Amino acid sequence: MRAKILYALVAGSLLAAGTPPAHAADGAALELVRKECSTCHGTRGISVAPTFPHLAAQQAEYLEVQLRAFRDHSRADPHAQAYMWGMAAQLTDPTIKEISKYFSTQPAPVPPQAGAAEIAAGKKIFEEGVPTQSVPPCQSCHMPNAHGNGPFPRLAGQHRQYLEKQLEVFAAGVRANEMMHATAQTLTALQISQLAAFLSSQP
Amino acid sequence: MKRSLLVLALFAVLAALAPSRAHATPAFARQTGVSCQGCHTVFPELTPFGRKFKLNGYVFTNVKQLEPLSEQGQRTLALSEIPPLSVQLQASNTTLQRSVPDAGATGDLAQRNSTEFPQALSLFYTGKISDNLGAFLQLTWSPPSDSVGIDNSDLRFANHAAFDSIGMPDFIYGLTLNNNPTSQDVWNSTPAWGYPYILPDSAVPPVASTLLDGQLAQESAGLSAYVYLFDHLYLEGGAYRSAQTSFTNATTGGPGPLDSTAPNDRISGVAPYWRLAWEQAWGEHSLEFGTYGIRAETHPTGIGENGPLNVFTDIALDGQYQFITDDHIFSLAGTWIHEHRHFNNVLLATHQNNDLDTERLTASYYFRRRIGGYVQGFSTTGSRDPIMYAMGTPVLGSAKGRPDTQGAIVELDFLPWLNTKLGVQYTIYSKFNGDSKNYDGFGRKASDNNALFVYVWTAF
Fold first, then answer.
1. Residues 6 or more apart in contact with residue B245 via CB below 8 angstroms
2. Most A-contacting residue of B35, B54, B240, B368 (CB-CB within 10 A), to test interface
3. Which of A53, B15, B134, B457 is most exposed, with minimal Cβ within 10 Å?
4. Nearest CA to CA, how far is B25 from chain A (Å)?
């Protein structure tokens, strides 16, 4: 009887192994999404831990640029080195394109709530910039709805901690980007926090 | 003198049976290109990413593959150009509060302080073998037995599937063939990968532990099937069999029969193992709670294959909470194992039915993965049994015939690099084998077994 149970278990597993996955036709890139990207970013590009950004509804062009930058190590902030250099090392250009297209077409995450006062302060920076600190309005590149545009990423609904971290690594020059370095290094910690609170709460 | 020899023999057996601890490997980092911190808070504890990497069969790779195609255009092999090998070294110094009694020239045990370099030296093959197939294989040389032996090992097939038509999104399914129940588990609340991750070889081991708590480690082989559904629910079912004993048949020279005097109880037939767990993650937090267990009918040591069987039933609960950020990592892990022992061999136990309960609760904190430590409270309690708990045996036995052992472990660690840990660990016993004072009936106190353990542990 016990042996039968064991055989049943093994047979069941092998049968399951033979079942083709539902997305088998979606190609190698989507298999990568399901098996690898989803581990941190979620199958639909909505991540749980704020260390890892949401990718859903992100600009495809921005994702492509970033994946290539991970692959050639030109994006070198500590998290990029720790996680994405390895993950992107073997990606080909067509795969990068397909992965980026997949995530860009997923529905955006539902934004969390944030305090009204910090949202208002963050909104002001986003829309008007901080002229006294030579900070231009963010919306001029990232669009008024913060949905991004081509190489300029969507910021709306992104994890607050992730946005704060990126502004910190831009400011420190660890994530190389001249425009963002110049902008972020003049922002105070409070302004960064307000800006991230506003952006993360946007649909 | 006779008593001393008995102590020596028991000590040697228990040291050889002490569960070995297998660990994280740099070969994974080489294979994936992902830093240690991807899979580990601080090795060997797994992060949510590390759990998925293991559930997925250790196969993700960024190393160039040898991928020949068949005439039909199908890939016939996916072999890494660099074999995923790595080495682990542990060295330590242990100081007992009070040395065990001197047994004279034959068994000179009166050594309060002992150094081991290495305490363990391991060679790993850990990583992808082919598409959907990966391995965690460990060979370890250890000083107590002065031999190289197989350590925790896991051969794993895993894949993904989805049944959108019935509302079943993408899930992981797999098979694991391993040699230690719970070594296949992905949470650090279960015994094989639970704290303490490293222990002194020369400390005095308590008289009782449950079957799931390392008793079958490297002496059994189990095959189980698992699924991880909805990114939350883990279900696993399988069965273990005892490995062939190391004894040879005196007549034929072939592998020994299962009724020879093996070092441990052997499973009769197969022992079913089950595991069910739920994981919930939000923000930087993750929480798991679950149950696991095994039921084993065993041939006890020295009892023939046709002799009466003993029956062990272990049912356990476990839970784990993690908070992980770049600066602060906090974990809480605990388990409770209840074991019912039904002995049909009256020479091995006074009572036919006995119960044993083990509880452990461990809290850990690390700052920037550099400095941190652990605090653990542990307890094993159970019903009284003079024969089973070696009444009348100095140091290792219990004068009251009771298994009760309770205490705490405090540990402070420093990691100069992510793959190297320097630790100071102190184990404090409030009760040992049934009592705090004169627990063995020969004047030894529970606190005499307190141990200060200083170690270095590196893998590369």
1. B255, B256, B258, B260, B262, B263, B266
2. B35
3. B15
4. 16
Cβ partners under 8 Å of residue A141, min gap 6: A149, A152, A179
**pTM higher than 0.80 for the full model?**
yes
Side chain identity at residue A66, one-letter code = Q
Contact residues, chain B, for A38 at CB < 8 Å: 170
Contacts of A19 in chain B (CB under 8 A): 161
**Residue of chain B whose alpha carbon sits nearest to that of A13:** B225
Of residues A21 and B188, more confidence is placed in: B188
CA A103 to chain CA centroid, nearest Å: 9
How confident is the model over B398-447, as pLDDT tens digits? 999 999 999 999 999 999 999 999 999 999 999 999 999 999 999 999 99
Task: For residue range B132-143, list pLDDT tens digits in order.
Answer: 999 999 999 888
Per DSSP bridges, beta strands B271-282 and B266-267 are unpaired
Q: Which of B351, B300, B331 is nearest to B40 (CA)?
A: B331
3-state helix, strand and coil shares in percent for chain B, rounded to the nearest 5: 10, 50, 40
- Mapped onto helix, strand or coil, the DSSP state of residue B126 is strand
What is the C-alpha to C-alpha distance for residues B189 and B289, in angstroms, rounded to an integer? 9
- Give pLDDT, residue B81: 83
The pLDDT of residue B164: 87
Q: How many CB atoms lie within 10 A of CB B245?
A: 18
User: What are the distances in angstroms from CA B116 to CA B18, B144, B151, B199, B420?
Assistant: 16, 10, 19, 12, 17
Average pLDDT, chain B: 88
Q: Report DSSP letters for B240-262, one per residue.
A: EEEPPPSPBPTTT-SBPPTTS--
Residue B198 pLDDT > 60: yes
A82, B33: Cβ pair inside 8 Å?
no
* Strand, helix or coil for residue A11: helix
Q: How far is CA B101 from the centre of its chain?
A: 29
| Contacts across the A-B interface (CB distance below 8 Å) | 104
With pLDDT > 90 as the criterion, what percentage of chain B qualifies?
64
Confidence band for B62, pLDDT divided at 50, 70 and 90: confident
Interface with chain A: mutation pick from B36, B60, B177, B322, highest number of A CBs within 10 Å:
B60
pLDDT given for residue B15 in this prediction: 44
Q: Hey, are the CB atoms on B284 and A51 less than 8 Å from each other? A: yes
Alpha helix (H) ranges present in B41-103? 48-55
Backbone angles phi, psi at B344, to 5 degrees: -95, -10
Is residue B376 within 8 Å of residue B196, measured between CB atoms? yes
Residue B422: what pLDDT? 98
- A5/B326 CB distance under 8 A: no
